Amino acid sequence: MENAVLQVKGMSCNHCVKAIQSSVGALQGVNKVNVSLQEGQVEVEYSSDKASLQKIKETIDEQGYDVE
Fold it and tell me: Does Cytoplasm count among this protein's keywords (predicted)?
């Protein structure tokens, strides 16, 4: 298992949290998604042989948020 903490800009409410959790959580190989609205962070636990960090970032970007 891999763990990544991503800085994400543009999150402002619980809708943002749910949008990221559901979209990233639906990716194959992603085990856990934790979104911290206060800190602007998304913590992801994933299996690197099934999901890539790049795909996770793209998925967040597709929801309308900026990943640093």
Answer: yes
In terms of Cα–Cα distance, which of 34, 31, 25, 29 is closest to 59? 25
Order of all β-strands in the sheet with 66-67: 30-36, 41-46, 2-9, 66-67
What residue spans define the domains of the chain?
2-50
Nearest to 42 by CA among 3, 27, 2: 3
Length of the chain: 68
The class (CATH top level) of 2-50 is: alpha beta
